[in-house]
Amino acid sequence: MGLGLLASRTLRTTTILSKSPRIFASQDPSNALRSIVSTPELQNPEAAAAAQPNPTPDLPPRTPVAGARVHLPNPDDAIEVFVDGYPVKIPKGMTVLQACEVAGVDIPRFCYHSRLSIAGNCRMCLVEVEKSPKPVASCAMPALPGMKIKTDTPVAKKAREGVMEFLLMNHPLDCPICDQGGECDLQDQSMAFGSDRGRFTEMKRSVVDKNLGPLVKTVMTRCIQCTRCVRFATEVAGVQDLGMLGRGSGEEIGTYVEKLMTSELSGNVIDICPVGALTSKPFAFKARNWELKGTESIDVTDAVGSNIRIDSRGPEVMRILPRLNEDINEEWISDKTRFCYDGLKRQRLNDPMIRGPDGRFKTVSWRDALAVVAEIAHQVKPEEIVGIAGQLSDAESMMALKDFLNKMGSNNVWCEGNDMHPCADLRSGYLLNSSIGGLEKADVFLLVGTQPRVEAAMVNARIRKTVRATHAKVGYIGPATDFNYDHQHLGTGPQTLLEIAEGRHPFCSALLNAKNPAIIVGAGLFERKDKDAIFYAVETIAKLGKVVRSDWNGLNVLLRNAAQAAALDLGLVPESGKNIESAKFLYLMGADDVNLDKLPDDAFVVYQGHHGDRSVYRANVIFPASAFSEKEGTYENTEGCTQQTLPAVPTVGDARDDWKIIRALSEVAGMQLPYDTPGAIRSRIKTVAPNLLHMDERDPATFSASLKPDFCQKMSLTAFGTTVENFYMTDPITRASKIMAQCSALLLKK
Amino acid sequence: MAFTLRSVKVPPNSVSLEEARHRTFDFFRAACRSIPSVMEIYNLHDVTTVSQLRSTIASEIRKNAHITNPKVIDMLLFKGMEELNNITEHAKQRHHIIGQYVVGNQGLVQDFGTKDQGISNFLKNFYNSNYF
């Protein structure tokens, strides 16, 4: 379902890419001198001779399915097969189905999925192979040299028709009430390959529905036993929750005992299910896929920046689906990303408000709200003005906030999560330097004070993929937590870190013997007082294990918030540690996770944001802003890849985009910022952090951390803490979401 | 009368800009001719005058003065004709006419206070809506 779209997108880019050389090639002969010889073969006798004995039929060149490309590392290992008479060169070990894809023939399939192991049980991909007595299942058959594959013969067609008839035997005909209708592989393929009538007259079987939790709805009678979900759960998600029970017609998918599916990636089984057996529970009976408008956007609930498609109908976000991005999220997204959207409809701020003397908020016009704030901002001393950007802020608004506060004479501006981290000088000091895709090359992981499973589920999925593929070792320092791959719990605090740095720990040998060791430091450590000492210890380990080399940079920081990397790039770091204590005018731009206990009682708090979350209780003035689904904003993810959200739905009520509010306020306050358009604000960003303009590109850090001066500070021996208490509720949107509340009630391990 | 017109085939497209221009004038004349009866139907004598309505129609047409594609002009003329038919058939109510053609889109309350003087276009647009 999602795959088709992903595929077409990739295809589009490849055709665009391949277009230019083709045009060039076609121009070439016409421009060159034409020789006056009537038979062109005489010009190049060898080629003509080679062409003569092998009269290949004049086949048009084919475009591979979904832009599939073959990389032949060793030309000797290449074999040639013929798909419907069309020769293709493929590497050894590819299956017949993959060879067909390279040749541009799409083979129908249900159980085969390119990111999962091969099951070969649906039999839909049967093709005819010459000299084979029976049609073969192409997904499970390795291609052999000289194989003549025929995908369009009567035998293959009849085989598919037969398989379809068997599958539909026990599949209910409830497409009109099925949520998969319109994006169902079975529906599509029965139209394309099925018979026009069935011969089955008995009763269909029925299967009891399973309860998989608040996210996945099951209608098990529709299941065709492709086992994609079972393979996804065991291989990618790393939970052994799903399995196949029974044999023959009694075969069914289920949890072995009554149990919910407790994985942070469980929503992906909805996408990979080819029929309507596993569908989205919150989306059930809400909309049909052809009514929805898809907007390609970016997820902001964590620092990974998963690529998503926001499906909306009118002013409402109906669902969120993953988009293919091999470097970041492959084709999966976490449950928080997928199901947080109902939070966009609750607790929204829709009008500017001022708190009256009785402590209640009164709705006012933008004109009045801006005038009040501008007046108060001029009454306080410049150094008493403090601005904090929230974890969902985009780069444009953070730039505007910093410029505005600087114009007011204050430089106390930072982003949530960076309040103790003044070291923004070197990008390598706060980025995931190996890149998310690059983690697959690592063979030893050392996780310091980070729980990737809850902090960045997609990074964790990448580590799990590596561990599964190469048996990479994982060492973990931090409080006891849940991993879905083999790991060694080395210790809980800085003590262990010091032992490794001094070479006294048994894990050191693993680190030293590793080819590509990767150290991942959690951004939660930024909040410790002794963070410099910890980072110094980590760098010592990096030096010891040769983690940072010219060809491999394995010293990584895993950030927590979507705004964090861009904020550090733009220089939103606090000047000193005690800013909030002395603040008289606090500008919160969507910052809800700051501790306001130490804020003086007479401080004036402006809250600009989209949700009535924690900070609103302390705010004096509220400016309603737009959420990530409603604005165009630049975000940089933890590996330094700049991406952009696009508006999918209109803003709520009288809300405005974040940067526009600050731009308007600056004018009312008499400190007009010099940009009126997103383009102008981006050219301002270009002077500060040009990498934020390179859309969809990862800009790696240029200098490595070795340029930093040595630093020695006493490390406190308190153990590392847990950064994210509740995976499902980390930001204003997810805290307002009902589905996320249900998940945290049911699925969190207590 | 107009209901019978509806069953009649849509006239063929204007061949040239000249023909479209000619049709526009025809339409304007037809609209002007219907103004007195419209004033009567909707009882507009105490809120507006014939000349005011005429200039409203003229300005509505001038709004599209930049369009040069005869097909588009034909489409707009068709829409205008529909609107005119609706009005003369009494398919609308008095407040529709007053709202659309007497008061205008800005509404009765028009804020031309001194407050907005000296502020940038950005801020003016900002106060109006998020989309500009």
Q: Can you offer a commentary on this structure?
A:
Chain B: It is found in: Mitochondrion inner membrane. The complex is a heterodimer of chains A (750) and B (132). With 750 residues, chain A is of the alpha/beta class. Chain A is built from 20 helices and 27 strands. Among the domains of chain A are: 1-55, no CATH class; 353-422 and 564-698, Rossmann fold (3-Layer(aba) Sandwich); 432-558, Dimethylsulfoxide Reductase, domain 2 (3-Layer(aba) Sandwich). Chain B is mainly α and 132 residues long. Chain B contains six helices and no strands. Chain B has helices at residues 2-7, 17-42, 50-62, 70-88, 94-103, 121-128. Chain B starts with a helix and ends with a helix. Chains A and B meet through helix 17 of A and helix 6 of B.
Q: What characteristic shape of chain A results from the CA principal axes?
A: globular
Give the end-to-end Cα distance of chain B, rounded to a whole number of Å. 43 Å
- The level 1 CATH classification of the domain at 353-422 and 564-698 in chain A is Alpha Beta
Q: Give me the secondary-structure category of chain B.
A: mainly alpha
GO cellular component, one term (chain B): mitochondrial inner membrane
Family (chain B): Belongs to the complex I LYR family.
InterPro entries (chain B): Complex1_LYR_NDUFA6_LYRM6, NADH_Ub_cplx-1_asu_su-6
Keywords (chain B): Electron transport, Membrane, Mitochondrion, Mitochondrion inner membrane, Respiratory chain, Transport
Please sum up the structure shown.
Chain B: One of its GO terms (cellular component) is respiratory chain complex I. The complex is a heterodimer of chains A (750) and B (132). Chain A has 750 residues and is of the alpha/beta class.
Helix and strand layout, with pairings?
The complex is a heterodimer of chains A (750) and B (132).
Chain A (H helix, E strand, L loop, with lengths): L1 H30 L13 H7 L26 E6 L2 E6 L4 H7 L23 E4 L6 E2 L10 E3 L3 H16 L15 H9 L22 E3 L9 H10 L4 E4 L6 E4 L12 H5 L5 E3 L12 E6 L8 E7 L2 E7 L12 H5 L13 E3 L5 E3 L2 H14 L5 E5 L5 H14 L3 E4 L28 E5 L3 H4 L1 H14 L2 E5 L10 E4 L2 H8 L5 H7 L3 E6 L8 H14 L10 E4 L5 H6 L15 E5 L14 E6 L11 E4 L8 E4 L4 E5 L12 H11 L9 H11 L8 E2 L33 H4 L2 H9 L4
Parallel strand pairs in A: 1-5, 15-16, 15-22, 17-18, 17-20, 18-19, 20-21, 22-23, 23-24
Antiparallel strand pairs in A: 1-2, 3-4, 3-5, 6-9, 7-8, 10-11, 11-12, 13-14, 13-24, 25-26, 26-27
Chain B lengths: L1 H6 L9 H26 L7 H13 L7 H19 L5 H10 L17 H8 L4
